[in-house]
Design brief:
This protein is mainly α and 373 residues long. The protein has helices at 2-25, 36-63, 72-95, 102-125, 128-167, 177-198, 202-224, 226-238, 250-266, 276-283, 287-298, 302-320, 328-335, 340-351, 355-360. It has two domains: 2-238, Rhopdopsin 7-helix transmembrane proteins (Up-down Bundle); 250-365, Orthogonal Bundle (Arc Repressor Mutant, subunit A). Helix 3 (72-95) runs antiparallel to helix 6 and helix 4 packs antiparallel against helix 5.
């Protein structure tokens, strides 16, 4: 186990991290204004990989690998704090492109650096009692830092999902679930780093190193491909906010009538990839205007509005299919749902019964009011 740890420390881990850092620093990003902060996030992530690689090299070749060393625990905490800071800010930037700013980065770096510098100084120049208190103070600071990032990320991800629901009729493919998973994996890595700092054992260090390397490699690939994925979500998150009156004015009602007529006559809701921009184009209106009018007049977001029509269409298809000639999957597809799971979830939420059970329900018992879809 010790040889494996030395091998990871000396060659494998820092080599991979340095390679990923080079890829990130020289990654070509399309010259889009909307990707400005992604370019900044790329530098932040490259710095995170480079910083961790340098820390590993310093620990192995300069300090020496001794988990009982007085500086071992503070060093682990220093690396954990900066990695949490770099990863969290980068991941939030992927779902809110205007989140990150150089001023914000500088202020946060200075604050974290001040706390961690105090930790290192006390361990180098003060007695064990002061150093111990400084370590526990820095540990509390780190825990608070993690909690802050959790609250920030959850708030921004909820806002991001709302943006997708206002623009796309089926937001599953636009939810960037890998970003959410990456955040919580990085959080788990941060917690493991805290455990390692509190109990600096070689076995924990080996497990920690292996988990970190696998995660860093997987995340690096995803991050590099984000610019391509951004093309599909760009309209939803770069749509300019417009000052629209929050009332049901006559112009809003007329536009809402036109939207309803388009749904009923052309059945656009049967397209799984339908977006608010598609409807806006057909009506010669701005996408933001269409989304806002639906929200004001129907008191639901665009996704829910479209799903209401899809549920009604699915009910019609189920009622017509007396001999069960169509499968549930076929009906879901015809009604405009992207997949079976989405169909079941929306239908049951709306009708308080699954599509399968609805099909088996006698006709006279099917006349129940629909709720929000």
């Amino acid at each position: 186990m010790e040889q494996l740890y030395h091998l990871l420390d000396a060659f494998f881990a820092p080599g991979i991290l340095l390679g990923m850092a080079v890829c990130l620093f020289f990654l070509h990003i399309p010259p889009k204004g909307a990707l400005r902060n992604y370019r900044l996030a790329r530098i932040v992530m490259g710095t995170a990989y480079l910083f961790y690689a340098v820390c590993i090299y310093v620990e192995y070749y300069v300090v020496g690998h001794d988990t009982n060393d007085a500086l071992a625990r503070p060093t682990i905490l220093v690396v954990a704090c900066f990695q949490a800071f770099l990863f969290s800010n980068t991941l939030i930037t992927l779902i809110r492109i205007n989140y990150l700013s150089r001023r914000q980065l500088i202020i946060e770096v200075l604050l974290i650096s001040a706390v961690l510098l105090g930790l290192v100084v006390t361990h180098l120049y003060y007695g064990d009692v002061v150093a111990r208190w400084a370590f526990w103070g820095a540990t509390l600071f780190y825990v608070c830092l993690l909690l802050r990032y959790v609250l920030l990320f959850n708030r921004e991800y909820i806002n991001y999902e709302n943006q997708m629901s206002e623009y796309f009729s089926d937001g599953e493919s636009h939810r960037l679930l890998w970003v959410k998973r990456s955040f919580y994996i990085s959080l788990a890595v941060g917690v493991l780093a805290l455990v390692y700092a509190l109990v600096p054992m070689a076995t924990i260090g080996t497990a920690f190193m292996m988990i970190v390397i696998v995660f860093y490699m997987a995340f690096g690939v995803r991050f590099i491909n984000y610019a391509l994925q951004f093309q599909s979500i760009e309209p939803a998150i770069t749509e300019a906010d417009e000052a629209l009156a929050e009332d049901t004015s006559e112009s809003h009602l007329k536009l809402m009538d036109r939207i309803d007529a388009l749904m009923k006559d052309d059945k656009l809701y049967c397209r799984p990839d339908l977006s608010v921009a598609d409807i806006a184009t057909r009506l010669g209106e701005r996408a933001r205007m269409v989304s806002t009018v639906i929200s004001i007049c129907r008191q639901v977001n665009f996704k829910t509005y479209i799903n209401e029509y899809r549920v009604l269409e699915a009910k019609r298809l189920l009622d017509e299919d007396q001999d069960n000639a169509r499968t549930i999957d076929a009906i879901a597809c015809e009604a405009g749902f992207a997949n079976r799971s989405s169909f079941y979830r929306v239908f049951k939420r709306s009708q308080n019964i699954s599509p399968t059970d609805y099909r088996l329900t006698p006709d006279q018992a099917k006349n129940r009011p629909a709720t929000e879809g």
